[in-house]
Amino acid sequence: MYDLLIGPFQEFEFMRRALAGTVALAFGAGPVGVILMLRRMSLVGDTMAHAILPGAALGFLVAGLDLVAMTLGGLAAGLTVALLAGAVARATDLKEDASLAAFFLMSLALGVTIVSMRGSNVDLLNFLFGSVLALDDPTLILMASIATVSLVVLAVIWRPLVLDCVDPGFLRSVSRVGTPAYIVFLTLLVLNLVGGFHALGTLLSVGIVIVPATVGRFWARDITGMIAVAVGTGAVSGYVGLLVSFHTGAPSGPAIILVAAVVYIVSVLFGPVGGVLPRLLPRRHLEA
Amino acid sequence: MIPQLAFRDLTLGYDRHPAIHHLDGTVERGALLAVVGPNGAGKSTLFKGIVGLLRPLSGRVDLCGLDRREVAYLPQVADIDRSFPVSVYDLVAMGLWRSIGLFAGLGAQERHRIHHALEAVGLTGFERRPIGNLSGGQLQRVLFARLLLQDARVIVLDEPFNAIDAKTAADLFALVRRWHGEGRTILAALHDLEMVRTSFPEVLLLAREKVAWGPAEDVLTPANLQKARRMCEAFDEDASECRVAAE
């Protein structure tokens, strides 16, 4: 039992680092994911995650595997795409989802091309699926900082952010902070995706943001509960996923997201809030 | 008589087509004004212009020195996401935005006010309900409770009693009367002409432009209502530019 559950982390430093990294990710990504889901923006998250790729790849092209260059590149690219897609949707008749899809495909193609210009296939795989088992000190500090900043900033913009989801018209009538709060939120999203990128790669980093949030919806009725469940799911998926990967030799990033996916499927089936089975249970209706 | 709202040659519309055409007039402070007219007469458009959601094509709305945020607005269809997991209490509490702003917590005084607002609309005991579980009438009561807390000088209600049963409408109208008694300025778009005749001292009859404005008995004459019905036609796609504006 000990060898199965705790031993790997006690024995290997890289496992401890990976665990610390994923838990940090879960704390930032949980609340961001819940807001994203409640705003019906889950696919926007996906797009942004891909949008990071060409930026990070440019950083890589210029400076090699340099944390600062790749992070800044990813941030810049993610924010640019977020703003451009919004601008295209507003300036033309194209709906925002279509314009996002166009940008996401563009980014993916561009990113893969740029990485291939300099790197090997291994580098490409690292970009796409991350390298959670090779987190060095600066990367860990970056990920932990992103989680900390996310939580603090979310606390600051929480009220307008939530009100902007529930009743945007009302928020506009009492205050002008709605749009700035939304832009700050998009920035947090990109930050978390960049943090996740180092561990899980561009294709999977959005997984730790979205999947735990969708799990939260099946277990809690209020936002606070959803966030708690999402953070818990993210952290537990990290822990279990790393163990699965350690014992079976499965790639660790995908293992983490797969574990989260299993939790998701269980939640869809058994979740007390709108799960499939609780609905099917033959229970008599109430008196009033 | 102190003016609270003034329309100065106001034209509001969409894609250059006017939905309110060259409206002039003044709403006194403390007025209780019913805005009536057929569908498409421009009632909602006028209200959007007042609260600043729609920029005038020409002319202007003068708030007479009032901050736009002192105008509370109840839209015809509130764009509320009812699937969002937020409680009645939290939604009503947001009416206190001007006093609590971004960060301030709810003190004893605020909780007291929220309690009283819920009591006033008959929703005591609904505090923890998610808004998704409310009926249409209950949601309207919640929105009125929030309006109560907003404590605004001017209150703009766009068809507040539509699709609501008589009991709820009567309860909510009692609140409107109370606001009127407190000296607030109230504009309400309504279709129930009976209610307007009995309860509103002042009426604006709209049909893209002002048909009549004054005491109910002078405005709601058969001739005026007939005229309003005829004036409300669809936009003319090939309309030429309006000359009045250029003069």
Automatic annotation (TrEMBL), chain A:
Q: TM spans, by residue?
A: 18-38, 58-88, 100-119, 140-161, 181-211, 223-244, 256-277
InterPro entries, per this entry?
Answer: ABC_BtuC-like (IPR037294), ABC_TroCD (IPR001626)
Provide this UniProt record's keywords sorted from A to Z: Membrane, Transmembrane, Transmembrane helix, Transport
* Origin: domain of life: Bacteria
UniProt main location, coarse: membrane
Q: Specify one Pfam family.
A: ABC-3
The protein in question is named Metal ABC transporter permease
Q: Where in the cell is it found?
A: Cell membrane; Membrane
**Which SUPFAM superfamilies does this entry report, sorted A to Z?**
ABC transporter involved in vitamin B12 uptake, BtuC (SSF81345)
Q: Topology with regard to the membrane?
A: Multi-pass membrane protein
Write out the similarity annotation. Answer: Belongs to the ABC-3 integral membrane protein family.
Automatic annotation (TrEMBL), chain B:
Domain ABC transporter per the UniProt entry, residue ranges:
5-233
The UniProt entry's sequence similarity note says: Belongs to the ABC transporter superfamily.
Q: Which SUPFAM superfamilies match?
A: P-loop containing nucleoside triphosphate hydrolases
Protein name as annotated = Zinc ABC transporter ATP-binding protein AztA
The cross-references to InterPro entries, in alphabetical order and at most eight, read: AAA+_ATPase (IPR003593), ABC_transporter-like_ATP-bd (IPR003439), ABC_transporter-like_CS (IPR017871), AztA-like (IPR047748), Metal_Ion_Import_ABC (IPR050153), P-loop_NTPase (IPR027417)
> What gene, per UniProt, encodes this protein?
aztA
**Keyword annotations from UniProtKB, A to Z:** ATP-binding, Ion transport, Nucleotide-binding, Transport, Zinc, Zinc transport
Source organism superkingdom: Bacteria
Annotated Pfam families? ABC_tran
The Swiss-Prot or TrEMBL record annotates one GO molecular function as: ATP binding
